[in-house]
């Protein structure tokens, strides 16, 4: 159990801080400090790639949130007009600088664009439920991605520290070898 590695929810492994560089190099097969730095650099690059992928995913999810919020706000306006038994007058953007003026008398259903060329008719209550669920899922995904990004950033920092420890150990070994050669001459 003491040997188990911790991982994040996405299965990203936790990096342990190297306190004994010599033991690490022996455990890795008696490699040199330079080879140890290269192995840690490979791990570092992997974490940086994961971080970039997660940042891109977070940006994609966060990009949907303002549209969902705006749709919920529009739904509230439609609901208010329906309660007042007033028609809804809308000027809608069709394309760049082309608008369409529209008046809707009957306000008991709305159409939601679900993507992939699919538009579905919903009652106002059903539409609110669908939009709210989508917004809540997007917000939860952003929160989870933020937590995962914090974890990955911690692993990147620990990996950088480990690289510095192994590099400094290599410098100390080279310096000790140089001093040993000088003192034996």
TrEMBL record:
Does the record bear Coiled coil in its keywords? yes
Q: Name one GO cellular component term.
A: prefoldin complex
The answer to whether the entry has keyword Amino-acid biosynthesis is no
Instruction: Cite the entry's keywords alphabetically.
Output: Chaperone, Coiled coil
- Molecular-function GO term, any one: tubulin binding
Description of how the protein assembles with itself and partners: Heterohexamer of two PFD-alpha type and four PFD-beta type subunits.
- This one is known as Prefoldin subunit 3
Species of origin reads Parascaris univalens
**Biological classification of the source:** Eukaryota, Metazoa, Ecdysozoa, Nematoda, Chromadorea
């Amino acid at each position: 159990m003491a040997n188990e590695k911790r991982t994040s929810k996405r299965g990203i492994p936790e990096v342990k801080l190297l306190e004994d560089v010599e033991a690490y190099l022996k455990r890795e097969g008696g490699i040199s400090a330079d080879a140890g730095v290269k192995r840690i650099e490979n791990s570092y690059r992997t974490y940086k790639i994961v971080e970039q992928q997660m940042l891109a995913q977070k940006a994609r999810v966060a990009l949907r949130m303002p549209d969902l919020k705006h749709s919920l706000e529009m739904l509230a306006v439609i609901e208010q007009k329906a309660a007042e038994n007033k028609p809804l007058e809308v000027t809608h953007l069709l394309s760049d600088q082309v608008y369409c003026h529209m008046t809707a008398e009957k306000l008991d259903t709305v159409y939601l664009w679900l993507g992939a060329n699919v538009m579905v008719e919903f009652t106002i209550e059903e539409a609110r439920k669908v939009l709210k669920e989508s917004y809540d899922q997007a917000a939860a995904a952003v929160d989870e991605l933020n937590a995962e990004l914090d974890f990955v950033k911690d692993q990147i920092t620990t990996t950088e520290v480990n690289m510095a420890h192994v590099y400094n150990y290599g410098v100390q070994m080279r310096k000790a070898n140089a001093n040993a050669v000088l003192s034996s001459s």
